Amino acid sequence: MTGEKRGAIVWLLAVLLGAALVWCKGADLYRVETDLMQLLPSVDQQPAVNQGRKRLAETAERRVLFMVTGDKRSDVTDAGVQVQSTIRQSGFLQLLDQSVAQQQAADFYQQLLPYRYQLLTGAIVDQLEREPEKYLQDSKQLLYSPAAFARTRSLERDPLYLFGSYFEQLFPASLNANKGVLLGESAGVYHGLVVAEVDKGAFDLDQQERLLALIQTLRAELAGDLNLHVTGLPVYAASGSNRAQREIRLVGMGSLVGVVLLLIATFAAIRPLLLAILAIATGIGAAWTLSGFLFGQLHILTLVFGASLVGVAVDYCLHYFCSHLPGAVGYEGSSTRRRQVVRSMTLALVTTVVAYLTMASAPFPGLRQMAVFSATGLVFSWLTVVLLFPFFLRRFCWPRRQHLLSAASGLAERWGQCVVARRWFAMPLVLAVILGSVWLHSEDDVRQLQMPNADLKAQEESIKSALPSNFDSRFFVVEGTSETELLDRERKFAKGLQNLQREGDISGYQGLSQLLPNKQKQRENYRLLQQGLYDRGAVAGYLADLGFDDKLIAAEISAFKQSGERILSLGELMAVAPDHWKTLFLGCEGSNCRSIVRLQGVRDVTALQQLQLPAGVYFVDTVNDVSDVMATYRQKASLLLLLGIVAAAVLLSFWLGKRRALLAIGVPAVAIAITLGALGWLGETLNLFRIFALLLLLGIGADFGIFAVRQRHLAAHTALAIGLSAITTLLAFGLLSVSDTGAVRSFGQTLLIGIAVALLLSPVAARLQEQRNGE
User: Fold this and answer.
1) Quick one: which of 182, 422, 439, 598 has the most CB atoms within 10 Å?
2) Which CA distances in Å does 629 have to 59, 166, 548?
3) pLDDT in tens, 454-500
4) Nearest CA-CA partner of 263 in 753, 774, 592, 720
């Protein structure tokens, strides 16, 4: 059996093994994740903080808000009803019945009304402490004011409007439900809000497509001047996923079309084209299968990045094909030339895979996936070239491409000679690189990596402006050894938030301490009413002035006396609290009780960060925390890049000798420096994804350098292969650089510049090697 047949059999066995793996795992290998946060490193913090994050994420993950706006209340109401009807028919969205929320509020009122003497607002407590009888005078005046409707409606059951004030503080009324639609008005424009939840969470791919189609249908159904605004995490996830799928098609098909045209133009034959497509398909198929097996699912941005593998994996095909072209000079014979090309491809594969695996060492799940996907794809593409190509190309009649070989060799040689002969140009280049690098500054804000659709952001702001409560993504977590300590800590800490609210740094906050005073405070509130009003007969006189008969006055006095020993516990409160208040209580486990304090209208984050937090209170700013982690790893990755250059130089010196190793590694090292300078001149910023792109540039640029210095001359077939490889690689990463996703764009733009520079430097390295050899 010939070596070519053995290689083909080994390749076939490897493919069959992969097919068996696919058969065993089935569709589980090909599940796709679309949550951007899954790309980022986890932020290890206190268990209380992680529990708070999880609770709020669960609350927001499935909710979608639909808002219809128009000039007529009736039209908005009818349109809201139509939106509800279409949502019901969708099969994947469940309407949140606003009558349920209203009923929850009504039940809350009825269940807690008996505790009205213990649940006093801060304003009432302040007035009772200073001038208790004046509170009654003010209440009497308010009963005769235009805004007295709510007070008069509850006058018999809550004559001092104690619980009414408490209830209004917790449930500020701004929207009214009509036919299941929450209606409101602002500046002459009516808005109707419909709230729904998706069945499978925000990141189910099939559901995202159905959601986008539903939104289009709803907009098409609106008549006249009505507008539909939609927001929610599922909407952002669907938009991002749809954008990523477009980019997969752009990068994958763009790279493939470029490769096909390049192969046809260069080799004018169908067999090399089919073999190249087979190598690319094998690499991508193996990468997806192995990555799916290792990670359980792949992120959609991994597939965007993996689509660029087309332009990189074809490099091995091009070097192998070009080594077969007749008419090349620089080697003793074609068989010797092919053996040396295979050795060079192997060395180049090792350097590139090492660069990818260096990326995989970072604690970024998304980067790990991208690195493993790309490294696996390159290895299997290389195996296809080395094991399968010799068998299928045994008797292939290669076309003569002397003009291409001569043009590539001549162009590379002239460029190398031109640059080497004008070494004085290095000084201004070094100065420009230094200036650009000085101007380059870092930007680690995670929000810059995924800029949301501007139209979606505008819709979100429109809906927020119509809602009574707009909560910020930042929040506090409070922890105590008991319910009493939890509430005490939150109440003491909330004094700082009240100061910030008065200063305009935040517009408000929401916490359990607003909802429930501790046991001691409830007793104090009762005594305050008892000593200031009831024992002195002030309440009886007040009720008589209002026209209450003796029976009603006696009933109120009796209700007060019977409430003396009544204390509301946190558990009792949570049993009847509406859902959005229940979210704030994280529960008690053992000796740990935890709660969330949510913020509204944050205008000064620095003021929040500078608050003096007592023990057991934690400020949570997930965006800032992840950004800090990215800054830390950017610094570590920069050091890793420097160490990688040194390690690669040492490694290559064993195979190539010291001088050739320095020339080979000098190609990516100088390309990295020039790329950093160019980014500074372009006004770009440095982030972690650019550093990882530079790590990959180290591997790809080393490939160029290795092929350029491994022979006495820059052989014609090598010059042609390097040029063709650079074109396909530039095409792949150039398409990444136009991505709407900041992380992908940073990666692609950096490699686009770096690989172009490395291409220009490889003939220079070859010329310097020739001079070393005395030519």
Assistant:
1) 182
2) 25, 42, 66
3) 788 888 888 887 776 677 888 899 998 888 888 888 888 888 888 88
4) 720
State the residue for tokens 């200031």: 532
Please list the ranges in the chain whose pLDDT falls under 50: 328-333, 712-713
CA 751 – CA 529 distance, rounded (Å): 73
Which residue carries 């920069």 as its tokens?
638
CA dist 619 and 622 (Å) reads: 10
The answer to whether the CB of 109 falls within 8 A of the CB of 509 is: no
Beta strand segments in 609-753, E:
617-620, 685-686
Single-letter residue type at 728: T
Distance CA 282, CA 298 (A): 18
| Helix, strand or coil, per DSSP, at residue 312 | helix
Residue bearing tokens 């192998």: 320
| Residue 577 DSSP label | S
β-strand partners of 508:
600
Instruction: Please classify residue 378 by burial: count the beta carbons closer than 10 Å to its beta carbon, then call 0-12 exposed, 13-18 middle and 19+ buried.
Output: buried
- How many contiguous H segments (helices) and E segments (strands) does the chain have? 32, 15
Burial of 224 (0-12, 13-18, 19+ CB in 10 A): exposed
**What are the pLDDT digits (tens) for 176-219?**
667 778 788 877 788 888 888 888 766 666 788 888 888 898 88
**What amino acid is encoded at 128 in this protein?**
L
The angle subtended at Cα 350 by Cα 348 and Cα 356, nearest 5°, is: 105
Q: How far is CA 271 from CA 319, 395, 708, in A?
A: 16, 11, 27
From the list 295, 305, 415, 299, the residue with the least C-alpha distance to 366 is 299
> Cα 747 to chain center, whole Å?
16
Tokens of 546: 């209002």
Burial 654-664 (b: 16+ CB within 10 A, else e): eebeeebbbbb
How many Cβ atoms sit within 10 Å of the Cβ of residue 544?
13
Angle at which helix 688-709 crosses helix 658-681, to 10 degrees, equals 140
Q: How many CB atoms lie within 10 A of CB 408?
A: 25
Within 8 A by CB and 6+ apart from 63, the residues are 96, 195, 196, 197, 232, 233, 234
Pairing of strands 592-600, 93-95: unpaired
Distance (Å) of CA 678 to CA 35, 637, 687: 33, 20, 15
pTM above 0.85, yes or no: no
Q: What is the number of other CB atoms lying within 10 angstroms of the CB of residue 188?
A: 6
DSSP label at residue 613: P
Q: What would the DSSP string read from start to end of 128-176?
A: HHH-HHHHHHHHHHHHTSTT-HHHHHTTTTSTT-HHHHHHHHHS----E
Residue 51: closest CA among 469, 581, 475, 472: 475
Cα–Cα distances in Å, from 361 out to 340, 356, 365, 373, 638? 32, 9, 10, 14, 13
| 91's tokens | 């099969």
Long-range residue pairs from 258-265, CB within 8 A, at least 24 positions apart, any chain? 258/311, 258/727, 258/728, 258/731, 259/310, 259/311, 259/314, 259/728, 262/724, 262/727, 262/728, 263/321
